[in-house]
């Protein structure tokens, strides 16, 4: 029997179990929402501690990033992410995990060529396109402001 | 038929090389699997007492080869040749494991099919009279494979249902010449496979990428030797996992041939469903360790008379996948028979 790539693709579709989307989305919603609630709690804490609105927001980001990096180092973040998926990926904690995990993993190749060089292999594209997009929006804003 | 070849692509040995001794080593997860008790040695520490995962994999291979040689009561240096392979770029686990052995060394890469490739080459070397004692060995390590092919271990990602789990294991066989009466298993045929690529681009579905190669090689072997699935006590594919196994059986069924009652897959045997390995195990060490821990002992004690080991490999690299290339599959089949020389 000779199969064409198209026929084979159909056969594969028939035998592949798809990701459990409903379950994945529920997990993502609950855990992602939970991280946001935690963030709100931390924000309230910093405000109660006497920081103004802007400083409290910055301190909240720093706290979440620090917590996520700590959990990454303790190998707990990936255990939660296995179930939470996008729920742990999308918040700022996911960004922190994507920087901390290669930094830890590649330290066997040294602090320069390992940790430092590989630290942004996953988060790098987010930084590149995040900054590029903000430059473009900045230019548009300047042009619109001049009109 | 030219010389030792029969049919389209099968090699038939005039004086079937023997498998004299073997050893399987594994990691913690492999120990907790259904075959855990059958391993010769298991390491509960993923580093195996070394400072990096690469060194740990090297250690696995060294221990497997050393234990197999020990069972023959020969030192490694008494071997005529080592044929070894692993998943790492430039085959470093194998080369570093062979460092200092003072034995002629061939490094091979066939992804998860490596054990069958190294066994096949070793058997040809012996039947051709180029060597008397050859060690065929293959290994893989979950942590070294993850960092090379996928993400850092601590990265929070989700694996798809079709993804497979790279085994932390190694298997080694010592092959000897046909005249070795003490060797309990012989290799009668080898069918080196062709590259088959039916356009699968999803690196998380290697079972689907490799199943056409397994089908092609098994069909070739069966038709070249004029045998049927019923003539074997088992057809063991290496690492098709659940998805690939279903596809392989479906392709045979389209030909009106059923292999389902004879077929098993090393990736499905090594782990059970409770171990969260999704579609099953994979990696060079998977087929190698299942062969040495589970299959060879059953041939040696006569539970089985004749089996096929059809180890499959997905021959992509992270670069080729990123460039959008589809995944070439390969499968090498070895026919193993029970019995000392009559």
Short description:
By secondary structure, chain A is mainly alpha-helical. Chain A has helices at residues 5-15, 21-48, 53-73, 77-84, 86-89, 92-105, 111-118, 124-146. Chain B has two domains: 15-176, Stage V sporulation protein AD (Peroxisomal Thiolase, Chain A, domain 1, 3-Layer(aba) Sandwich), CATH 3.40.47.40; 186-338, Stage V sporulation protein AD (Peroxisomal Thiolase, Chain A, domain 1).
Descriptive overview:
The complex is a heterodimer of chains A (147) and B (342). Chain A has one domain (22-146). Chain A has eight helices and no strands. Chain A has helices spanning 5-15, 21-48, 53-73, 77-84, 86-89, 92-105, 111-118, 124-146. Chain A is extended, with a radius of gyration of 21 Å. Helices cover 33% and strands 23% of the residues of chain B. Chain B has helices at residues 28-32, 53-71, 92-98, 114-127, 142-149, 206-225, 241-254, 266-270, 284-300, 318-322; strands at residues 5-6, 10-12, 18-26, 41-42, 81-85, 105-108, 133-140, 165-166, 169-176, 185-191, 234-238, 263-265, 281-282, 306-314, 329-338. In chain B, the strands form two sheets. In chain B, strands 1, 2, 3, 4, 5, 6, 7, 9, 10, 11, 12, 14 and 15 form a 13-stranded mixed sheet that branches. Chain B has a two-stranded parallel ribbon with strand order 8-13. In chain B, helix 2 packs across helix 3 (92-98) and helix 6 (206-225) packs across helix 7. The A-B interface holds A 1, 3-5, 8-9, 11-12, 14-20, 24, 72-73, 75, 77-78, 80-82, 84-85, 88-89, 94, 97-98, 100-102, 104-106, 108, 122 and B 51-54, 147, 151-162, 198-200, 205, 208, 212, 243, 246-247, 250-251, 254-255.
